[in-house]
Amino acid sequence: FYQCVFRPECLQTSSEIVRPVQQITTSTSMHIVRPGETLSSHGHESRVGGKGANQAVAIARAGGHSRFFGSIGRDGLWIKDRMEGYGIDISGLIVADEPTGRAIIQVDAKGENSISANFSKLHEERFKKQGEGWFPETTHLLLQNEIPLASTLYALHNVKDATVIMNPSPLPSPAQTRDFPWKKLDWLIVNESEAQELYQAAAGSGAKSTDSMTTKELLFRLSSESAFGDTNIVCTLGADGVLAFVPTFHRRQNAEAPSALYQPAAKLLHGVQDTTGAGDCFTGYFVAGLMEFGPHAKLGKDITEEDLAKVLKKCVVAAGMCVEKKGTIDSIPTRAEVEERMT
Ligand code: ADP
Ligand code: NA
């Protein structure tokens, strides 16, 4: 019981609320449907997806407890069962009157796709019903940017005593980026192009060209922007692995030269099959990795640089295994599979 009360838990307020249904139509045409055109498809499939759902599944497969807050419509009841089957705590999922949010994905014969997605109602409204400023208790909060920004801001301003991780994908607009409370994040997880865009938006007219910058320099500059202050940055580099820039470590060691932790990508046994969801798999494993140090583990004290390197290593192996298999949610490996690969 004791363990249960203090069990680290990650709360997701994310896209299951917004676009949990991924409707995929596959066409034999060599192009995506153009304005005014109708193409017939030869395949149609509905899956559970969205970054929030993918990342929640990754946390669960990695052995963490992830609780999902969201709303689905009556047309999306099957999602509830599917998510439960994935091992996610869906006690925060409610059935609302609006239809379930969805992404419509067209795939052409070359595998190229186009996505249009709708956003549903604001999530902060349901929290406010329990009192202004109310937010569920959790040890970790993981955010993406697939819900209305107001809901994300509500979560950031009202969550208490949690380690906050954000994978701001898709990126907020440059204007939203400048006003965003980045300092409330403990961890920012981005890919290289997101890091570049964030830096350009944050530095504004003073931004240097990122063209010939090394990723390390880019992260150093991004982290030097006052808006980011002490935020720790994990930048995934696709086939090149990951670079983590952790100011918390530098501060504690009074190090002058900022160092970065680098972890090369995992060697693939079966080649690249499908990179969709690799970033989400990485993020879920990363958060689950942090959760293993306990509810209020402090970086630099309870979590050392060596510990973090081990977490990143597991993340690249998990993400690499996800890339080796077709599919998104279904290609996220379990912890046992990852550990077996690592021995
Ligand atoms: P995103 O999909 O969010 O842009 P990345 O492309 O950076 O994210 O991929 C996330 C992680 O997935 C990488 O850090 C890496 O560990 C793994 N990964 C992605 N592509 C490959 C690849 N071709 N080979 C091995 N690992 C990969
Ligand atoms: Na995959």
Question: What class do helices, strands and sheet pairing give?
Answer: alpha/beta
H/I helix tally:
12
Largest sheet: 9 strands, mixed
Low-pLDDT runs: 1-7, 13-19
> Bound compounds, please?
adenosine-5'-diphosphate, sodium ion
Beta-strand content bin:
15-25%
Number of E-type strands: 13
- The spatial strand order of the largest sheet comes to 5-4-1-8-9-10-11-12-13
SSE string, helices as H and strands as E: HEEEHEHEEEHEHEHEHHEEHEHHH
Estimate the mean pLDDT confidence: 85
What is the CA–CA distance across the termini?
Answer: 33 Å
Briefly summarize what is shown:
With 343 residues, the protein is of the alpha/beta class. It is built from 12 helices and 13 strands.
Tell me what the structure shows.
- With 343 residues, this protein is of the alpha/beta class.
- The protein is built from 12 helices and 13 strands.
- It has helices at 2-6, 51-61, 77-85, 124-128, 149-158, 174-179, 192-203, 215-224, 247-253, 278-291, 305-323, 335-342; strands spanning 9-12, 21-27, 41-48, 65-72, 89-95, 102-107, 113-117, 140-143, 163-166, 187-191, 232-236, 242-245, 260-263.
- The strands form 2 sheets. A 9-stranded mixed β-sheet has the order 5-4-1-8-9-10-11-12-13, sandwiched between helices.
- A hairpin with a 5-residue loop joins strand 6 and strand 7.
- Helix 2 packs across helix 10 and helix 7 runs parallel beside helix 8.
- The longest helix is centred in the C-terminal third of the chain and has 19 residues, at 305-323.
- The chain is globular, with a radius of gyration of 20 Å.
- The two termini are 33 Å apart.
- The relative contact order is 0.13.
- The model is unreliable at 1-7 and 13-19 (pLDDT under 50).
- Adenosine-5'-diphosphate binds at residues 191, 236-239, 241-242, 265-266, 268, 272, 275, 278-279, 282, 316, 319-320, 323.
